[in-house]
Structures are given as structure tokens and as C-alpha cells.
Amino acid sequence: MHEAHSTIDGRLYTAEEFERQPQAVKLAHRRSRFTCPVCQQPASFRSRSRDGRAACFTARHTPGCEAASAVWAETPAPGVQTVPEVDNTGAVIVLDWDGIPSGAPVPGPT
Ligand SMILES: [Zn+2]
Questions:
Q1: pLDDT of residue 92
Q2: HEC profile for the chain?
Q3: How remote is the CA of residue 70 from the centroid of ligand 1, in Å?
Q4: Which residues are 10's β-sheet partners?
Q5: How far is the CA of 26 from the centre of ligand 1 (A)?
Q6: pLDDT digit string (tens) for 43-55?
Q7: What's the rounded Cα separation, in Å, for the pair 20 and 62?
């Protein structure tokens, strides 16, 4: 999510704002010193990742919390297509026994 409440200084930070805070402020906020501004569940800051993902806050929201990042979960990855379910026709595959008795030596090259 994009914003979280600090339980230390009471501020509402956006992820970008918090990323620009001095190191001392960041250290003080380690270990989930945030709460979700909507559902008040504990939240923590995730800094920008090496692969370029923007900084954000994460939390275990209560079900239905508006701040939960449902947008991401529901956005299909590019190039993904919905395909129809395969119909179950009820057909049964019957293995055709080829007559080699079990335990017989495997036929090798002659
Ligand atoms: Zn929430």
C-alpha cells in the first residue's frame, strides 16, 4: 500500500516520503512501527528493491480493507490470456495391454 501511519511520531507517511527520511528515522521504524491507515493493522515499510520496484508499505489487512493492494492482485500480468476450462467429456482412457507378461525380460536389440 502507499501510505501508513507511524506509531512513533503519529505521522501519515507515503512510501516516497518515508524513503527520504534520515536513517535515524528509518531505524526507529524497524519492526512494524506502522499501522494501516484504514484497518489499523500493523504494517511495515519495504524499501525500493534492486529490480526497481517502488518502495511501499505492507500489512496484513483485515478482510475487505480498502488499503489492501487488491489492484495488484487482480491485474493480470501482460501477455496473460484467459483460456476456457477444458471440458470433461467423461471419456475414460483404457490402457491397451500389449501382452508382455510381467517379469519377462525386456526385449533388447537382436
Ligand atoms: Zn488495511
A1: 80
A2: CCEEEECCCCCEEEHHHHHCCCHHHHHHCCCCCEECCCCCCEEEEECCCCCCCCCEEEECCCCCCCCCCHHHHHCCCCCCCCCCCCCCCCCCCCCCCCCCCCCCCCCCCC
A3: 11
A4: none
A5: 21
A6: 999 888 888 888 9
A7: 29
